[in-house]
Backbone:
C-alpha cells in the first residue's frame, strides 16, 4: 500500500510539473515571444530577449509546450489506471444499469482516443 501511494504521489507531482510547463510555455508563446512581425510592443520584445535569453526562441518554447503536453497526457492515463478501481466503484454505486455504465465507459474511452490521435499527428 505504501509503495502504491509513493508511485501515485510521484505521478501526481510529475503531472503537476508537466502541466505547469505546458501552461507557462503557452503563456510565453502567446504573450512574451510572439512572432517578430506580430510583436505588440518593443517592451515585449525586450523583455522576451532579456528574460529568456537569445537561445530561448519561439520554436524552443513550442517544443517545450508540445512535449510537456504529451507528458501530461501519458501521466493522466497512468493516473486514471492507478485509480481505476475507485472510478469503477463510483460508477457502479451511482449507475446501476450495466448497459448505461458500459456506454459511459465507451464515451470516456472515445474521449481518450480523441485526445491521443492529434498527438500522433503532431509528433511525426
Residues:
Amino acid at each position: 500500500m505504501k509503495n502504491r501511494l509513493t508511485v501515485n504521489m510521484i505521478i501526481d507531482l510529475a503531472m503537476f510539473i508537466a502541466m505547469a510547463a505546458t501552461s507557462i510555455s503557452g503563456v510565453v508563446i502567446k504573450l512574451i515571444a510572439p512572432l517578430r512581425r506580430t510583436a505588440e510592443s518593443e517592451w515585449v520584445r525586450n523583455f522576451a530577449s532579456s528574460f529568456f535569453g537569445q537561445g530561448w526562441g519561439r520554436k524552443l518554447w513550442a517544443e517545450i509546450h508540445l512535449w510537456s503536453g504529451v507528458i501530461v497526457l501519458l501521466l493522466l492515463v497512468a493516473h486514471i489506471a492507478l485509480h481505476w478501481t475507485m472510478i469503477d466503484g463510483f460508477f457502479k454505486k451511482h449507475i446501476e444499469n450495466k448497459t448505461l455504465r458500459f456506454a459511459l465507459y465507451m464515451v470516456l474511452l472515445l474521449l481518450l482516443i480523441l485526445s491521443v490521435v492529434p498527438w500522433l499527428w503532431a509528433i511525426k
